């Protein structure tokens, strides 16, 4: 008999292309030997290159979806992606902690669709601080980091926000021969580098990375090791084919980049 898998919950939007959001998260969790549960926050009309519109799921329906899952399963690991109201996000975070005081929450802030649609503009810094304090990890890309916390550089912003929670600053939107993600944790910085592939751009790569980190946390790894393994898994998806939609497959942490 196979070993029981831990459960992890994705609270995210539904992308019909399967490249991002809820479907991508559950694919990633499954490929990393974690059972993925899902709560839908939005129904989007999009593919990998075009975004037309979004229909938001109400806060009450989001909680109703999650309530039955928490009643049935032991959920200690949660990822939050696209959500309509960031001013109401603290209420969701508090609700999750009320269901399980030990819950480990990753927030992957989706502020703008890769096809250009704007979900959220600038946020009050006090709200960003309130959102970050309950988190186990914040996973913005470089443009998102500066929108969340204006500073001279994304690194400076991440360094400041890491006073509230650990930050994994994703480097997928930069240039250069390699892509280096940086984990800001307890005053230290840990870099994870992989080659930047010539056809490695993928729709939803940030979703994949944060979900992969969540999977490895659910399997008991440290945050640093989970980020390293998440980076390595994402690299396999980026290298899987030359299109904008990556392929997922079973993954071993032995391939992790140092």
TrEMBL record:
The keyword Kinase applies. The keyword Manganese does not apply. Keywords: Kinase, Plasmid, Transferase. Its EC number is 2.7.1.49. Residues 15-244 form the Pyridoxamine kinase/Phosphomethylpyrimidine kinase domain. This is hydroxymethylpyrimidine kinase. Gene3D superfamilies: 3.40.1190.20. Pfam families: Phos_pyr_kin. GO terms for molecular function: kinase activity. Pathway: Cofactor biosynthesis; thiamine diphosphate biosynthesis. InterPro entries: HMP/HMP-P_kinase_dom (IPR004399), PM/HMP-P_kinase-1 (IPR013749), Ribokinase-like (IPR029056).
